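Propose amino acids for all 357 sites.
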């Protein structure tokens, strides 16, 4: 009887996993077919701004509900990093975030055998809600780093748009790391990122978190910072704390004191996270989601949005104009390239999971 129950549950998980993958693909396809956001919505207005404002550096609000002033751009290329998907125009962030990415890239190359970072989305020039791909990344304190190592040569603009993501998951298996893809250098990269005191959280796929719990033999002090979440099987998401003196930045609660390898992780390997949403009660009128407006964001975001722009990308590139590369024209308000982190709208989520990421 116990064997039959175990097999039944395994079958359920396989089907659930296939359903989640399908839901993710459907979500991605739906995103690619979305119409432009409504004129006047926060997504439309913040997404249309090509350059940061001239104001002082300041994040306003929460990671998933805010904006930023005084953003700087991560240079498109450095000795140990390259930025990806340039047409998105999302390589902007708080100087504290950009500085951390550059430091991580150097340290990982020097100490961890990681040749360099491929950096994905950080934020839009003035933060705010993005047209697609994220609910967070709004105040310049979030960044995505691919789990693909940087090649030895600078990639072309076209390659940066089209190079596919590499999943760490084994095809056809439920939340299982592919041993032919996963490497110790990836584990060292994650723990290097978690070692910096300003890093608040690092979001990874539950299978990656489990792999780290099961196999990491070094200092486990910062293992709790690795937080399991949907998606995130081909990149990890770094979130840093509100910088000192950022009075208008709303912090997130600290991670729990344990290493995160117990009950909270085991939950991801049960039925509950992958269960379809409960159907509404008969007669319940469906609620149509309302688009986020600028008035829904912190009051300062209206001023950030209308403030004069810096003169050029070069003048707002971290490290000065000498660090800047030629500008790449951002896309118009059309869907960006499909993201690898489309989240299926299914099931309850842990309390520490930010909305949408």
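Proposal:
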């Amino acid at each position: 009887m116990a064997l039959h129950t175990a097999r039944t549950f395994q079958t359920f998980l396989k089907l659930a996993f296939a359903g989640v993958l399908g839901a993710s693909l459907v979500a991605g396809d739906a995103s690619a077919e979305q119409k432009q956001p409504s004129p006047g919505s926060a997504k439309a207005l913040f997404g249309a701004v090509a350059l940061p404002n001239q104001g002082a550096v300041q994040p306003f609000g929460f990671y998933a509900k805010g904006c930023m002033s005084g953003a700087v751009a991560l240079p498109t290329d450095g000795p140990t990093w390259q930025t990806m998907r340039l047409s998105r125009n999302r390589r902007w962030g708080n100087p504290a975030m950009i500085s951390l990415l550059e430091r991580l890239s150097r340290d990982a190359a020097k100490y961890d055998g990681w040749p360099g970072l491929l950096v994905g989305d950080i934020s839009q020039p003035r933060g705010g809600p993005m047209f697609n791909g994220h609910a967070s990344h709004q105040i310049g304190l979030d960044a995505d780093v691919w789990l693909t190592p940087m090649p030895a040569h600078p990639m072309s603009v076209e390659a940066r748009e089209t190079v596919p993501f590499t999943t760490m998951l084994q095809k056809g298996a439920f939340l299982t790391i592919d041993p032919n893809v996963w490497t110790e250098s990836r584990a060292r990269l994650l723990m290097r990122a978690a070692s910096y005191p300003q890093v608040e959280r690092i979001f990874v796929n539950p299978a990656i978190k489990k792999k780290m719990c099961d196999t990491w033999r070094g200092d486990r002090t910062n293992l709790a910072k690795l937080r399991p979440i949907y998606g995130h099987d081909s990149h990890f998401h770094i979130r840093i704390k509100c910088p000192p003196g950022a009075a208008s930045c709303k912090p997130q609660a600290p991670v729990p004191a344990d290493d995160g390898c117990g009950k909270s992780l085991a939950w991801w390997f049960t039925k509950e996270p992958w269960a379809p949403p409960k159907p509404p009660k008969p007669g319940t009128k469906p609620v149509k989601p309302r688009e986020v407006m600028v008035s829904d964001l912190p009051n300062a975001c209206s001023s950030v949005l209308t403030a004069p722009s810096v003169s050029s990308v070069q003048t707002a590139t971290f490290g000065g104009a000498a660090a800047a590369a030629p500008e790449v024209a951002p896309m118009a308000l059309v869907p960006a390239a499909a993201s690898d982190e489309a989240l299926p709208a299914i099931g309850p989520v842990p309390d520490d999971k930010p909305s949408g990421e």
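The longest strand covers residues 199-204. The radius of gyration is 20 Å.
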